[in-house]
Amino acid sequence: MTPAFWWPFLAVLFFLGVLLKVYLLAAFAVMLAVVSALARWWQKRSLVGVTYRRFPYYRRGFPGEKVQLRLEAENHKFLPLSWLFVKDLWPWAVGPEDEALLSPTHIEDLAELINLFSLRWYERTRRNYTLLFRKRGVYRLGPARLESGDLFGIFEQVDASGPVDYLTVFPKPLPLEALNLPADDPFGDRRSLRRLYEDASQPMGVRDYHPEDDFRHVHWPATAHTGELQVKVYQPVSARVMVVCLNVSTFEYYWQGVDPALLEHMVSATASLVQRALEEGYRVGLLSNGCLAHADQSFLVPPGRSPQQLSKLLETLAGVTPFVTAPFETVLTKESPKLPYGARLYVLTAINTPKLNATLLRMHSHGRRVNLLTFSRLPPPKIPGIHTVHAPFYG
C-alpha cells in the first residue's frame, strides 16, 4: 500500500467507524495512523548520524598477500536502529579470503559484501575480515548502499552515497634472469658509473675543432673571428638518470585487442628494472603510452631518488591499464625533451615497428642513450648504437 493511499484509507476507515458506531474500528484507524506517523518520522531520521567505514590494515601490497580489514558501523544518535542493511561493492581481486562471503553482481569482476547490523543508541559495531590480494591493480571499494527504516518495517530509507576507498596491488617483480639480463650488470654500464657527459644546454667556452667532434657543435662566430674551426665546450654533468619507457601495446594495431598475460609480464618486468635501477643509485623515472586506472592520459613520473620513489613507481605501475592514448613512438618524441640531459632510456616493448625503430635511432643520434628490451617472439632488427635484449614471451 503506497503512502499516497494510506492516509485517505485510514480517514475513510475512521469515519466509517464513527458513523456506524463501531468504535473499535475507529480506534483501530487512529492506532494505525499513530503508528504510521511514528514510522514515517522514524524512517526519515533512521540514517541520520549513521556512519559506515572501512579500516584495512594496509592499503597497498603485492599479489598473494593477506590484509586484515575492519568494518565499522556506528549510530551517532539517541534513536536506535533495529536493522541496518549494508551492500558494499567489492572487487573480487581484493575480496575476502573466503570468496563465499561475496555475492555476485551483474558487473564482471565486481561483487557485493553484504552485512546486517542492529544498532542501539550511540552504539558501534565492528566486523573483521581477511582480504586476499589476488591481482595487480588499483581497486575501488564502494560506494556502500545503506538501507534502514522504522522499527515496524513499514518504510525504508536508502543512502547510496556511502564512502569510497581504494586498495592498490603492486606488480610482482620478475627475477632479472627471466629477462635475459645479467644479474650483476643488467644495464650494461658497470664500467662507466662515473662517466661524465656534456650538457648541450650549458655551454662554457670554445676550443679548436678535432676530427671526432660533431659538426653540429661548431661555433661559427668564433670560427669567423679566428679563421680556424672552433667548437663549443659544454658543462660536463654526471649521467646517473634512467627513465624506463613502457609500451603497453601488445599488438601492432589497437583493433587486434590485448594480450593480458603479455601485458602483465611487461609490467612485472618494468617493476624489476625500476627496483634494480634505484638499488644501483640511479634517479629513476617512468614513461608510458598507457592510461592509469581512473584516468585518460598517458603518464610521466619524473626521475627521482627519494625514499618514496620506489613506492611511487610501483603504485603507478599498479594502475597501468591496456588502454593506449597514442602510438608509443609519438609519446617518446613528445616527452623526450622533458627528460634530463644524459638520461638513459630503457625501452620495453612487445612489438617492434619500423616507426618505433626509427624513433629510437633518431633519439640515439640526438645524444640519447637507449636500451631496448623486447618481448616479441621474433628477434628484432639490429639498430646501430642501441643495446638490444631479446626476451621472448610465449605465455
> Cα-atom Rg, whole angstroms?
33 Å
Helix content: 10-25%
| Sheet with most strands: strand arrangement | 17-15-14-19-20-21
Number of domain units = 3
Shape: elongated
Query: Based on the structure given, which CATH architecture of the largest domain is correct?
Result: 3-Layer(aba) Sandwich
Structural notes for this entry:
Helices cover 25% and strands 34% of the residues. It is an alpha/beta fold. It folds into three domains: 50-169, Sandwich (Immunoglobulin-like); 176-192 and 239-390, Rossmann fold (3-Layer(aba) Sandwich), CATH 3.40.50; 203-235, no CATH class. It has a six-stranded mixed β-sheet, with helices on both faces. It has a five-stranded antiparallel β-sheet with strand order 5-6-4-9-10. Helix 6 runs parallel beside helix 7. It is elongated, with a radius of gyration of 33 Å.
